DNA sequence: GGCCGTTTGACAACCATTCTCAACTCTGAT
DNA sequence: ATCAGAGTTGAGAATGGTTGTCAAACGGCC
């Protein structure tokens, strides 16, 4: 796994390009979309590499992953603290929100039922002020 | 289509079989799993039909749909009141939980940012006591 | 019984994602 | 600089869930 051996993953050209592409938009994008962005911006990166890179950074917590309603995975570069998203159904605008109370609630709820290794997903969808 | 024309979908043998299969387990099951349950219980139903049926009832709100972490859609016959799920990653055991505080939090958070027509998803995944 | 719209099921098509593997690229040591 | 070896890449194939196709089967209804 090469997890904590000091060397860590190499910041290659391709990986930086993927991060940069994600940074250049501030919405959630699918791997396919990131791949297109890269192709049309003159620094094409193989699709498999895009997937690997997104997964890599997602595992490290450097990008957030969530699922569209049709199941496609979408990625976004986010702040490091744990948070959730308020997403506009119409234009895709995203607001990061924090809810310590929610974190506490999920944790205690899980503990109460004997669950361990707990993770949770919480997303809020709606229509933003500009779109309504 | 055929939404409110009085006739509605026909309660065919296959559709009832799908609902029954879902009722016979009280976990979330994927379409593929439902298909297997039906096959091995002596009332085989085509895979495409299982998908269509689950979608049909999901649209009607008779079954809940959510996504596993790998994106696969899973279905369950649920109580009608709004609630969330605590799901075991390993065996699929499910606990329905309610959290009025969470409902209030999401609502106020959305309002604060001018979002309307709000919905939300909240699922907790973990390893249950029996599986850990 | 026969007509007609609905439903079914076997199979192909789709599409996101992962796998394979040979070629390539860093990094560190000689 | 050169070499070796581990890490990384990319093209294409393989995988697997899901949806589309379409002819055959079914269920009411006259």
Characterise this structure.
2 copies of one chain form a homodimer. The first copy, chain A, is of the alpha+beta class and 132 residues long. Chain A folds into 2 domains: 1-78, Winged helix-like DNA-binding domain superfamily/Winged helix DNA-binding domain (Arc Repressor Mutant, subunit A); 81-132, Ferric-uptake regulator, C-terminal dimerisarion domain (Dna Ligase, domain 1). The first copy, chain A, is built from 4 helices and 6 strands, in the order αβααββββαβ. The first copy, chain A, has helices at 13-24, 31-40, 47-60, 100-112, and strands at 29-30, 63-67, 73-77, 84-88, 94-97, 116-127. In chain A, strands 1-3-2 form a 3-stranded antiparallel sheet. A 3-stranded mixed sheet of chain A has the order 5-4-6, with helices on one face. In chain A, a hairpin with a 5-residue loop joins strand 2 (63-67) and strand 3 (73-77). In chain A, helix 1 (13-24) packs across helix 2 (31-40) and helix 2 (31-40) packs across helix 3 (47-60). The longest helix of chain A is centred in the middle third of the chain and has 14 residues, at 47-60. The A-B interface holds A 67, 71-73, 86, 88-89, 95, 97, 99, 101-102, 105-106, 109-110, 113-129, 132 and B 67, 71-73, 86, 88-89, 95, 97, 99, 101-102, 105-106, 109-110, 113-129, 132. Strand 6 (116-127) of chain A pairs antiparallel with strand 6 of chain B, so a sheet runs across the interface. Chain A binds a DNA duplex (30 and 30 nucleotides) through helix 3.
């Amino acid at each position: 796994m090469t997890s904590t051996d000091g060397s860590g993953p190499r910041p290659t050209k391709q990986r930086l390009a993927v991060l940069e592409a994600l940074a250049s938009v501030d919405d959630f994008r699918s791997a396919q979309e990131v791949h297109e962005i890269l192709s049309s911006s003159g620094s094409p990166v193989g699709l498999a590499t895009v997937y690997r890179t997104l997964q890599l950074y997602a595992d490290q917590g450097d990008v957030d992953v969530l699922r569209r309603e049709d199941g496609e995975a979408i990625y976004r570069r986010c702040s490091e603290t744990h948070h959730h998203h308020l997403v506009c159904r119409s234009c895709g605008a995203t607001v990061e929100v924090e809810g310590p109370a929610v974190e506490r609630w999920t944790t205690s709820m899980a503990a109460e039922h004997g669950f361990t290794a707990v993770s949770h997903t919480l997303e809020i969808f709606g229509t933003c002020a500009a779109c309504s």
